[in-house]
Amino acid sequence: MRQKISVGLFVALFSLSGCGQDYSLSPPADSEQVTVTVKVPKELKAETMQVMYRSLTCKRISRGASGQRLESDGHHGLDVQLQRQGSSDLFQVKLPKDGGGACNWHLANVTFGVVYVDPTRFGENVITGGGGGVIVIFDHNNSPRGGADIEVDGDLTIKKDYYPWLKESFLGGYSKRISLVGEGDIYLSYQATQARKVYFEPVLHPDFVVYSAEPKVKKKGNHTTFTYPDGTVVADGKWHPVFLKLQTIRTGRDRDCFDVWRYANCHGRRPQLLPDWLPEPDQAGFGRYLLVDEWGNKLPSYSYRLVGQSGEVFQGRTEPNGRTALLPVSAHPLRKAEFPEQAW
User: Fold this and answer.
1) Centroid of chain to Cα 132
2) DSSP secondary-structure letter at 11?
3) Which residues pair with 110 in a beta bridge?
């Protein structure tokens, strides 16, 4: 059973069956809250969140193949709409971790994500596909879509790159779908038993579209053809675009650079100085610049050489927050920014 509710109606709203026992969700007033926030790009929208609560008290009874009695944890699903925060691009929901009631419900997992607001912008009769999904598991059970790929301690922050995938299918009926390609297939799955805050920021790269066309005739040797943003055409038997290929096309970096363990030793990190001048609050007439890599990550302890408007040279290494040393306002805007090779 699954019900659709707004955030403010988490009180005595559902039951597992009509057997006389009270199966309602009744969170205590002092229940801890789990806050899920999604930063939604303008081309996308937040999907309805699927929420599952579980109970060790109220068991679900079923029968096995031989008629034997089988017991499992009781569970109940809810559909919850994330609420926009003012006029911002942040959408949020707060869920009671302790569901209360006679069944002693607890928050088990949530499934949410983003999809295109208007799929027809990619052509007539284009419909929404998959991708851009996230599963967060708060206990030690699997979600309805399986277990977690990644375990985290404490709160969970997810910031991932996504690319549009326009997929054309012929076999079994014609369809054209716009999906999102990310690190995972359709869902990124996390176990975060201690999390009280979950933040998801999908970073969409709308100018890097990958196209695919399935074969019109099913026979050996016929494969789906993928056309990547750089014009490369591949038909190697894969069903899904290669995410790292899209990353390398966009950034010009080697695939190894996207491995978390190898990134620090990846040469040629393509640093860039953001153009915004950041005035120093406590020192009038002075400010700083921010140095980031090609993905927007701040670069600490990175060498720079800046030439100001008057020709004065400023050089040094960025602070832990990626900012340069204090510069006089007369240096802005800069004539030149150079980055000597970083010594690791």
Assistant:
1) 7
2) S
3) 51, 136
Question: Can you list the alpha helix ranges (DSSP code H) found in the chain?
Answer: 243-251
Q: Count other C-beta atoms under 10 Å from residue 343's C-beta.
A: 6
- In the chain, the amino acid numbered 293 is D
Q: For 156-197, give the DSSP string.
A: EEEEEEEEEEEEEE-TTS-EEEEEEE-SSSSEEEEE-TT-SE
Helices (H) and strands (E) in the chain, counts: 1, 27
Contact assessment for residue 323 and residue 293, using Cβ atoms and an 8 Å cutoff: no
DSSP H/E element including 6 = none
This prediction has a pTM of 0.72
Could you tell me where the DSSP H helices lie in 205-339? 243-251
Q: What is the pLDDT of residues 220-231, one digit of tens each?
A: 889 999 999 999
d(CA 321, CA 325): 11
SS3 48: coil
User: Hey, is 266 helix, strand or coil?
Assistant: coil
**Sequence-separated (6 or more) residues with CB below 8 Å from residue 156:** 136, 190, 192, 195, 197, 198, 199
The string of pLDDT tens digits covering residues 140-154 is 999 999 999 999 999
Quick one: how far is CA 210 from the chain centroid?
A: 19
Cα separation, 236 vs 220, whole angstroms: 12
Place of tokens 């109606």: 9
